[in-house]
Every structure is written in C-alpha cells, then in structure tokens.
Amino acid sequence: MSERTLVLIKPDGVQRGLTGEILRRIEAKGYTIAELTMTTATEQQLAAHYAEHEGKPFYRPLVDFMLSGPLVAAVVEGNRVIEGFRSLAGSTEPTTAAPGTIRGDLGRDWGEQVQKNLVHGSDSPESAAREIEIWFG
Ligand code: IDP
Ligand code: MG
99: domain CATH number? Predict the structure, then answer.
C-alpha cells in the first residue's frame, strides 16, 4: 500500500531559493508530489504541528522562525515514503547531517537558538495523518 507524508519546506528553504532543488530531490527519488501549496503559517497551525515540543527551550524560536516567511507544504506519496523522506532529509542538525542529504548538503548552523534545517517530514503514519490534516484539512 502506498503511503503519504507531510513535507514542509521551511521559511529558510524558500527564502534561500531552494524550493526547486528540494522538490527535485523528492521527484528524482521517485516519489509523487500529490499536493503542493505555498502559504504563510498561522500560530494555530504551528501550535498543533509542534505540540510535542511545547515547553522545550527552542520552542518559541522555532515557532517564530516558522512564522518568519512563506513556506511550502506538500503531501508526498510512495511506498515507505515516511521513512524514505526522513532519510533524504538527513538528521536534525545540519552541521552533522550526512552529506548527500538535504540538510547535509544545503544546510548549516547559523548560530541561532533554533536549527534552521530547511525541511520537515512526518515521523510516523499517525503524525502524517495528523499533519496532513493541519496543512491541507
Ligand atoms: P526533526 O525535524 O528532525 O524531526 P524535531 O526533534 O522534531 O526534529 O524538532 C523539530 C525542529 O525543531 C527541528 O527540525 C529543528 O528545526 C528544531 N530543533 C530540534 N531540536 C533542536 C535543538 O536542540 N536546538 C535548536 N533547534 C532544534
Ligand atoms: Mg520531528
């Protein structure tokens, strides 16, 4: 059964002109872009999307960063795409994310309270269903 995941190109990715490069990598891997929109997040969407991180020291910087400009939201489809996109994205910290990944090739540390790491990808089928509803519901 084909699977769906929620991908966000965060405001740093859009601002740096990397939207096309990131979508290219998703398509080159063989996944299908099923939905795609550029939008500016609301506080409510971010409170829902990042509920698991509320109370952490980087929570407010993260929300402010995600509000700082337009982002691109996509529903991406394919067998094992949740795991596959997380692998394409690389680990959270761009400094140590593996070369060859989106974060490893295109990201760096900017010395801020939040890691600006270009993309978000759902981490489980439950998160994917919840997050797709937040951005496309
Ligand atoms: P993920 O995006 O790799 O799944 P999460 O742990 O879910 O990482 O964290 C959500 C986002 O919060 C990260 O993508 C990153 O932008 C930011 N973040 C996570 N941990 C830290 C941290 O320790 N310091 C600063 N920012 C962080
Ligand atoms: Mg996460």
Answer: 3.30.70.141
Which residue CA neighbors atom 6 of ligand 1 most closely? Answer: 92
Q: What is the pTM of this model?
A: 0.98
Range of the domain at 34: 2-136
Q: Is 49 a catalytic residue?
A: no
Phi/psi region, residue 80 (left: phi>0; alpha: psi -120 to 50; beta: rest), is left
Taking only the tens of pLDDT, the chain with its 137 residues reads 799 999 999 999 999 999 999 999 999 999 999 999 999 999 999 999 999 999 999 999 999 999 999 999 999 999 999 999 999 999 999 999 999 999 999 999 999 999 999 999 999 999 999 999 999 99
Q: Nearest CA to 13 among 77, 72, 78, 93?
A: 72
| Cβ of 10 below 6 Å from ligand 1 | no
